[in-house]
User: Fold this.
Amino acid sequence: MAQAIDKNQIESILKYDDEQRAKYFLKEVVENHQIWILKDEHGCVMLTTEDEDCIPVWPNEEFAAAWITQEWQHCQAEAISLNKWFSRWSHGLADDELAIVVFPNQDDQGLVFYPDELEDELKTQQKKQIKQGSR
Assistant:
C-alpha cells in the first residue's frame, strides 16, 4: 500500500515541470503498483487537448483527489492495479483511440502518451527498479 504524502511533499512535487512530474509518476506507479484516475457514474473523466482526447492519470491518491473540485466535484479517485492497467486499460484505451495525460497540474498541463508508449515506459521503469533492488 502506498505511503501517505505530507503537505510539504505535495507542494514541492506540484512545482515540478511536466517532465519531472512524468518521471515521478513512473517511479511511484511502479513502486505502488497502481495508477489513479477520477471517475463518476459515466466512467473516467477526460481532458481534451488540441489533438487528443485524454484520460488524466495520477501517481497517488492525494494528487488525483486534489482535482475533485468544481466541474469534477461529483467524481471520486479510484486506483487501478498496474496488472489490470496492462491487461485491460492499455488495450482498451488504444482501441478507443484515447491518449493519456500523465500527472496533469492544475493548469491542465502534462505530458501526453499513447497507451503503448506509457506501457513501455512503465515496463522499463519496472526493469530499472528490479535491477536496483537486486544490488
